[in-house]
Every structure is written in C-alpha cells, then in structure tokens.
UniProtKB/TrEMBL annotation:
The protein's name: Folate-binding protein
Span of the signal peptide: none
Domain GCVT N-terminal: start-end pairs: 37-244
UniProt lineage: Bacteria, Bacillati, Actinomycetota, Actinomycetes, Mycobacteriales
Swiss-Prot/TrEMBL keywords: Transit peptide
Organism: Nocardia vinacea
Family matches, as InterPro entries: GCVT_N, TrmE/GcvT-like, YgfZ/GCV_T_CS, YgfZ/GcvT
Amino acid sequence: MSVVVAPSPILAVPGAVAGAAGSPDAAVAWHYGDPFREQRAAAERVAIVDRSHRFVLKITGAERLTWLHTITSQHIANLGDGRSAENLDLDLNGRVLHHFVLTELDATVWIDTEGEHGPALLEFLAKMVFWADAKPVEAADHAVLSLLGPRITELTEALGISTLPETYDAVPLPDGGFLRRMPWPTADSFDLVIPRDQLADRWARLTAAGAEPAGMWAFEALRVAALRPRIGLDTDERTIPHEARWIGGVAEHGAVHLDKGCYRGQETVARVHNLGKPPRHLVLLHLDGSADERPTTGEDVTVGGRAVGRLGTVIDHYEFGPIALALIKRTIPAGTELVAGPTAAAIDPDSVPSEDAPQAGRIAVDRLRGR
C-alpha cells in the first residue's frame, strides 16, 4: 500500500517544480528551473535540497542502542553520543527491506528513511520491542534538509555553529534539531534534521546566506554518480546487501557489519561473504543520449534479448549525460553491449566491484578437502 506524503511548504518557493505525480519525490521540488546549474552548485559551491519527504522517527529508553543492535545489520551497541550510522532491516532470507540512517544524540536515536517505507519500518520496530527498555515513535514534527558543496563553510554563522562535524558526526543546532555530516552523495554532504515548523525559516535563512536552491534531480544525479542505491528504486524484492554495496561497518561507510552478533538475515550475509558471491552487483550505466525514448526504473537490462539485470534510477547528469544504476548479473563483462529498455547502454568499467579476493570460508573448505 502506498503512503501519501504531504506536499512540502518549500514548493511555494518561486520556480519550484514538484516531482512527477506518483513518484517517490512528488511531495518536494524536483528542480527550480535549471537542473544542471543546480547540480553544479551542489558539486562546486553550496546548494540546499528539500528532502522533507523523508520519514523521521525516534527511539528513547535506556536500551535503545543495544536493542536496535540485535535486530539490525549494523554494529551500533556502543555508538557514541553525536555519532551516526547507516543500517538495514533484512528479512529471514537476508533480503533488504529497509535502509535507514540513524543518529544517537542526547539519549535519543533519530532515524530517517524513505517516506513510503517509514510506517512499515516503525511498525516492525514497535513489534520487536518485547521487554526491552526502548520506545520507537514517529516524530512527524521533524524533517530533513540537505546541504551539499564545498562552500558550506560559509554557512556556519547562519546555522548557529562554530565548526562543521566530521563524517557521520552530528552536532545540535541552537534552535533544535541537528546537523549531520554524510559521506555521500558528495564529499561535502550534510543533513539538517530539524523541527518541521522551521522548514521555511531555515530555508530562507540559508538561501539568504548563499545556499542555492537545488531540487531532488540534483541530489539524485550526484547520488547515482556516487554509486549509492536508493531502496525501492535501485533494489527489488530479491536484493541482498552484497549486491547493493551496503557491506561494511561505520568506518567503511557501509550498513552491514560483518563481525557482529545474530540478527535476522545474518545467515545469508555470512554465507555470501564466506562461501559464495552475490548473483548480481550494482553498476553505473551510461545510456545512449541520442535515443528517442528513455528507459524507466524497473525495466529489464538485456543482452541479445536475454534479461541480465534490472534498471534502477535513470537520471541526467550535468557532466556524464544520461546515466543509471542497475543490478546486473555478476558474470556479465563490463564491455558487453547492453540494452536498457529501448536504449543502448554500457557499463562504466570503473563501477564494477572487485570480487577476486579469496574468501575465508572457501579457503577453509578447500583445505579440508586437501586442495
């Protein structure tokens, strides 16, 4: 069942064009009239992106971290105050159900995730509390804005802080909420998680201080170029963490720690890591820009009429032209001529993950067999 997200008040900003009806970004601005300039601003100057359609929830209680640690994929039991992490909820077969970002601050865990997935994640967390001292509740009064670009240093006064946090660190803001540094979609990426009634005022203050309005088109183009998947667009019901590049602890900017205790879906993660290889991997595709039609998310990627993958986010990048993320069978070489929907496509060879390292479990099995 789809979840209706209320339109953002930032859509009233002159020039704002809402995301396509029925899309995950319909409630916020897709662009403000010049999408490529907005992307360049986010990459080279400083841009502000309205991501207030993200679902925000919070968890309180003395056991909030140790409890959440036991039911999700990331190692967060000892996460320090002001620290953040990416995390996954998996099903029993290790398939990804939810991806979310969490921040521990002032005895509260703040979680933000995709707007359409948020209610289901909250329902799952509430069902899993049992006897733990943890209370997950929706925080509908908070929203997310993102600041992208190297010149964010010019905004510290407008933000009310003296220094910017390091990656995955968060600092409280004087009027409530916090500023968190992320490792993507650019090297200079920050999220503001703030009271929702501050959205218009924060936007006005930050744009007056030099932040340039940029829509979700800009954010998505930079995210795709950075090879960062978005749940529900670049994943399907079969996606496992290894396929989507989510393996790794906080230090590796991942969402799945490989040396933590039991959690739902861990058996699949451990088996693929130690004995097998993922059936697909996430790659960047360059699309034929001269084609009359563009492919759409969810279409097959084919070779000679045979399906070899699934197309994810399709976007126009200010430097690379039309690009897309795709889950492609691991056995397909980078130089293979592909067709994505109605369009010729090619795998960016630099985006193909290296999977040549010997696996500890496989080495042990070979030793037992005398190989």
